Amino acid sequence: MKDTYKSITKPSSEVLFKDRNSKFFGYAFPVKTEEEINIYLEELKTKHHKARHWCYAWQLGKEDFHYRANDDGEPSNSAGMPIYGQIQSFEVTNILIVVVRYFGGVKLGVGGLINAYKTAAQMALEASETITRSIDRVFLIKFDYPEMNVVMRMIKENNLNVLDQKLELDCKIILSIRKNEADEIFEKFDATYKVNIKELDL
């Protein structure tokens, strides 16, 4: 079962593709919410306020993906879907790609537009740094102070990632565990005397 996904670490540098006097500026941004997407779109519309089209595609999610492709006035499926095709080709998610077009006075035709938007999106992705991240599940462990050594040993032996902890008379630890290992780790803690574990829905 796959428990990793690919995304980009930071916004790409600006790239430029030219075809018959039309300019296509490409950008890629790491995003997690539609609110972030809208902020980046507004920033680019301000920066390129004289452009003719701001076409884009985005994909969000680690396992259950949802996406949108927008032609922004270009002929149907000549801009947004070619951009989205590059997101699929590079197998990245939590990403927004925007291609800004300045019309150069010569019509490119649907085939020319598809090639231009696809190429600008590809260039933006090639200018980005890609990272592979694990898909994790998050668990809360509760136990009394005397069980501390047992719990800490299990955390160390299984090389688990501690997100937060409160170690007092009644102790709480929040763990992030890789999806493929989560059930096995859960059972280990669940079988440990006086240790309570439950999954958090984040």
TrEMBL record:
Where would you find the membrane-spanning parts of this chain? none
Residue ranges annotated for the Impact N-terminal domain, each copy included:
20-125
Give the residue range of the signal peptide: none
Family annotation (InterPro entries): Impact (IPR023582), Impact_N (IPR001498), Impact_N_sf (IPR036956), Ribosomal_Su5_D2-typ_SF (IPR020568)
Q: Hey, which family's this protein in?
A: Belongs to the IMPACT family.
- The name under which this protein is listed is YigZ family protein
The scientific name of the source species is Autumnicola edwardsiae
The organism's taxonomic lineage, starting at the top = Bacteria, Pseudomonadati, Bacteroidota, Flavobacteriia, Flavobacteriales
